[in-house]
Design a protein that fits this description.
The structure is a single chain. A two-stranded antiparallel sheet has the order 1-2. Mean pLDDT is about 85; it is low at about 1-10. It contains 49 helices and 2 strands. The protein starts with 14 loop residues before the first helix and ends in a 5-residue tail after the last helix. Among the domains are: about 15-220, Serine Threonine Protein Phosphatase 5, Tetratricopeptide repeat, CATH 1.25.40.10; about 225-325; about 845-940, Serine Threonine Protein Phosphatase 5, Tetratricopeptide repeat (Alpha Horseshoe), CATH 1.25.40. By secondary structure, it is mainly α. The radius of gyration is 49 Å and the shape is elongated.
């Protein structure tokens, strides 16, 4: 066919034009070259249809060229399935070897010059559509036949290599690619294509250590390419990098990101281009249109480049984060957050930036970026996760103060019960536990668990709620929560700790068998748990409490605890507890040599331990007995000086031990002198000064000599006026408050006690503080104060195993309720008092008041029995026996048993009439009145 120029106006529907295949061929090629694929296809289909079977008869195999062109046009239109059929038709239906009816070969009128081309393109289409086995077959055949025609075998070989790789024939496919890369004649562009085939179709399924040598050997092929070509390959490498990140292969991902053209180069290029276009002054409308189009193109490309830069930074940041290079990840994510605020993935960048900041302890930025996210995207699907990450990332790193602040701020941003407030709410509450504020922690954790239908952190929240109750000595409540935790979260990693604490709670409640069973279950079910060591100590404590257990058995159990704890440096305090308890036991048994050995072991093994004071206190008597009196004094004074600036419990414990040790071996005068001449530091720490002063006061009070009263008062004034309240331990403050009460300054006393309650709710001697404050509040005219008093009385009664204080609290609560007329509630308090047989100081009162509560709640007959028991059994307790007589008589009078009522009054006056008591006077007047009434109603005396 001869190439001629296309005739104007001729098309696929013009029979005259279609009758000239040569002209049509040239027109089709022109359409193909100009990208007018639809027009080219229409013209090709029109010609094939026009000639039909006659085309092959008229022109021979060469008519197959039109099917080949049709395939090329369809490929250009990305219709690869149809294109494959056209190439198949060209190859199979238009062969150059013709056999006539006699079986002889004939020379075709016009040869099909595109047979091998069609075969190669057919194979390419099969490869693109995923039919790799057939693609391999066709491409190999094309290579075999290529020697007889002019065709680019390098392209066929690369398609064959790709098909082999995608068909799983990696070795053969890789061999073809490496052969191409090693070629000295293959153009660089084809080598780059070969490189990319290996990158896309071989590297994803191969261990990265096998990939690296290939990249080292041939990576420069791409790096030396033009910027435009590198830019066009960016999506491929970005995709591979993202897939690597999904598979948690950060090194592979960062390597692929390294092959991307830095978008900053494109950004700079297009920024310069836009600046240049801004200087252009168009001459006419056409120039203005061209300029406008140029600006639009530049702005589009600039935006594309900026998006590419953000995407690259996101990927690089993720790769570094996975590798643990948090500083690099932080830099990448911050770049996106700060300089690409409108990028679609800005929220993802900020989310990851917050995570990076958490590792780097950049708390201000966590809050700053997180709050910006929440303000800009309040409805974003990541809002709850950003809030969670902001709060929890700080919490998990143990920055409790920062976590509390962040959790509260976030919790308050959202409506309560909103899913976004869930984790911040938990963090705010749980941080209080770690900060040692167990009272508020318990309240907030309880609220958290009730606030959300399905709390996201129900498991740890329940555990910390139970643990908080235990720290507050609310044993029963704590045990209930922890045992519910065991039921609700059987697979929790916190179960061993929950079980141990529940066992401790049962022990504190005096339920020794239950406590022992829990400790045993802990050891059986979690033999490797770190809590097992402490469980042996608890078992030893239980054995000790049970009594009648041989000393050696208890000591051996503590020693098991020590052996297990000593294997873990984190359990040093558990081991120290074991040794301290052994010291205490041996000291009680007066095994002084054993005490000394254990003491020396303790001082060597556990310096600075929280149990050191206990260990020293337990050993001082044995030290003195074995001629180490000076050692004992020195050890005690060493600890006193160690805690001289600490108003907490440690100073009080060791100071009390030192003082008791001195009293045991010296008369009061000598001890007083030692206290006054204690070798205090030159800066005279206020906590130590308070203890020395209060000790001096108590020693002088113990002398019972009123000549010291002024000195004692002056010393109290020194504590009150010279020492900052926050630097004075609780016990000296309680003594100071009581001194103020004795001076009738209840306002000052209450102020001191309120300070302790507010600032040291779990401090030492808090039971004394609560008891004393309750006594002051109970006399208040404020209902709020009286309710607080009752709450403190209840807490002292239920929480502290101190019989004297419990008795006083029970009396205080009962009396307060009686004054308020709350007889139904008071009945429980007086009943509690009566059930404690060892409480005898106010038994007459308790019996009477219990009867009064029965009477006021509608049970006068039961009350009568109590009143009779009071005046029969406690006649000398006039305050209560006289009232009991009077209440008995009143009840009988109301029941119209006037004679019986008079007999009761007669009995009272016979037995108690000689006493000058207000109730006796009331009884005389009442008896005279009732007798007169009786005589008036019964003149005959009957």
């Amino acid at each position: 066919m001869m190439a001629v120029g296309p005739a104007a106006g001729q098309n696929a529907e013009d029979p005259d034009f279609l009758s000239n295949p040569t002209a049509v061929y040239n027109q089709i090629v022109a359409f193909l070259n100009s990208g007018s694929y639809e027009k080219g296809l229409a013209l090709t289909d029109g010609l094939i249809h026009h000639w039909g079977a006659r085309g092959k008869e008229e022109f021979g195999p060469g008519f197959g060229h039109f099917h080949y062109l049709r395939g090329v046009l369809l490929m250009a239109s990305e219709s690869y399935g149809e294109a494959a059929n056209s190439f198949r038709t060209c190859y199979e239906e238009f062969p150059n070897e013709l056999i006539n009816s006699e079986g002889l070969r004939e020379r075709p009128k016009l040869a099909n010059r595109f047979l091998v081309h069609a075969l190669a393109q057919w194979g390419a289409c099969l490869m693109i559509t995923g039919n790799y086995p057939e693609a391999i077959e066709k491409l190999k055949l094309a290579l075999e036949k290529s020697s007889a025609t002019r065709i680019r075998t390098d392209a066929i070989a690369l398609n064959l290599a790709r098909s082999l790789l995608r068909n799983g024939e990696l070795a053969e496919g890789k061999e073809l690619i490496l052969k191409a890369l090693a070629s000295t004649t293959l153009p660089a562009e084809m080598k780059r294509k070969a490189f990319m085939i290996l990158v896309e179709d071989w590297t994803p399924g191969v261990p990265f250590e096998q990939v690296l040598p290939f990249l080292w050997d041939y990576g420069e092929l791409l790096r030396n390419d033009t910027p435009n070509a590198q830019w066009e390959r960016n999506p491929v490498f970005a995709h591979l990098a993202r897939e690597a990140l999904k598979n948690e292969e950060p090194l592979r991902a960062l390597t692929w990101y390294g092959f991307l053209l830095n978008p900053q180069e494109r950004i700079s290029h297009w920024e310069i281009r836009i600046a240049e276009l801004g200087k252009v002054v168009p001459d006419d409308a056409a120039a203005r249109e061209r300029l406008s189009a140029g600006k639009r193109e530049a702005e589009t490309e600039l935006a594309r480049a900026r998006d590419g830069q953000a995407a690259l930074l996101l990927g690089v940041g993720s790769g570094h984060f996975q590798l643990g290079n948090v500083s690099a990840a932080y830099a990448a994510f911050r770049e996106v957050s700060d300089h690409h605020p409108d990028h679609p993935q800005w929220p993802d960048a900020v989310y990851n930036l917050i995570a990076s900041c958490a590792y780097l302890a950049r708390w201000g930025e966590i809050r700053g970026y997180g709050n910006e996210f929440l303000e800009r995207y309040p409805e974003h699907s990541l809002v709850a996760e950003v809030a969670r990450l902001m709060a929890e990332s700080i919490y998990l790193l143990g920055e409790w103060g920062e976590a509390r602040q962040t959790g509260v701020a976030l919790r308050d941003r959202f409506p309560r019960r909103d899913v976004a407030a869930d984790v911040p709410d938990y963090v705010a509450a749980a941080s209080l536990f770690h900060l040692g504020n167990h009272e508020d922690a318990a309240s907030e954790l309880d609220t958290y668990l009730k606030r959300y239908a399905k709390p996201r952190r129900a498991e740890p929240a329940t555990y910390y709620l139970g643990a908080s109750k235990m720290h507050l000595f609310k044993w029963k409540e704590g045990v209930e929560v922890l045992e519910k935790f065991e039921e609700d979260f059987p697979d929790s990693s916190l179960r061993p700790s929950a079980l141990l604490q529940a066992a401790l709670g049962r022990f504190a409640l005096g339920e020794l068998d239950e406590a022992s069973a829990k400790a045993e279950r802990l050891r059986n079910d979690w033999p490797s748990a770190k809590e097992v060591a402490a469980s042996w100590n608890l078992t030893a404590d239980i054995l000790l409490a049970q009594g009648e257990v041989p000393l050696e058995a208890i000591l051996g159990t503590y020693e098991k605890g020590r052996e297990l704890a000593s294997a873990d440096p984190a359990l040093i305090e558990t081991a120290a507890y074991s040794v301290w308890k052994q010291i205490a036991l041996q000291s009680g048994a007066r095994n002084h040599d054993a005490v000394i050995a254990l003491y020396d072991d303790f001082r060597t093994s556990f310096p600075g331990s929280g149990h050191e004071i206990d260990a020293i206190a337990g050993a001082v008597r044995s030290l003195a007995e074995k001629g180490r009196h000076a050692d004992a004094v020195a050890a005690l004074q060493e600890q006193i000086l160690r805690f001289a600036n600490d108003p907490g419990s440690s100073l009080g414990e060791i100071f009390g031990t030192w003082l008791a040790f001195l009293k045991d071996r010296n008369d009061v005068g000598a001890v007083l002198s030692l206290v006054r001449h204690f070798p205090a530091p030159t800066d005279d720490p206020a906590p130590l000064r308070a203890w020395l002063t209060i000790s001096e006061i108590e020693l002088m009070e113990g002398l019972g000599d009123e000549t010291h009263r002024d000195t004692i008062d002056n010393l109290y004034f020194k504590i009150q006026l010279d020492l900052p309240r926050e630097s004075v331990s609780n016990y000296p403050l309680v003594k100071l408050a009581r001194w103020n009460v004795a001076r009738s300054d209840t306002v000052k006393a209450r102020e001191i006690l309120e300070f302790i309650i507010k600032t040291r709710p779990l401090g030492e001697h808090i039971e004394m503080v609560m008891s004393d404050l309750a006594g002051l509040l109970a006399t208040s005219e404020s209902e709020t104060d009286r309710n607080r008093a009752l709450a403190y009385y209840a807490e002292v009664r239920e929480r502290f195993d101190m019989p004297l204080l419990q008795e006083a609290a029970t009396l205080g609560g009962g009396r307060l309720l009686m004054r308020q007329g709350r007889h139904k509630e008071a009945l429980n308090w007086w009943g509690t008092y009566l059930r404690r047989e060892e409480w005898v100081s106010s038994r007459p009162e308790a019996n009477f008041q219990f009867g009064r509560c029965l009477e006021e709640t509608g049970k006068p007959n039961e009350a009568l029995k109590l009143y009779v028991s009071v005046y029969v059994n406690f006649p000398g307790h006039l305050d209560w026996s006289t009232q009991a007589y009077l209440r008995t008589a009143d009840i009988l009078k109301r029941d119209r048993k006037d004679a019986d009522a008079l007999l009761v009054m007669v009995d009272m006056l016979k037995r108690l009439g000689s006493f000058d008591h207000p109730n006796v006077r009331i009884a005389r007047e009442q008896f005279a009145r009732w007798k007169a009434e009786w005589v008036a109603r019964n003149p005959s005396g009957s």
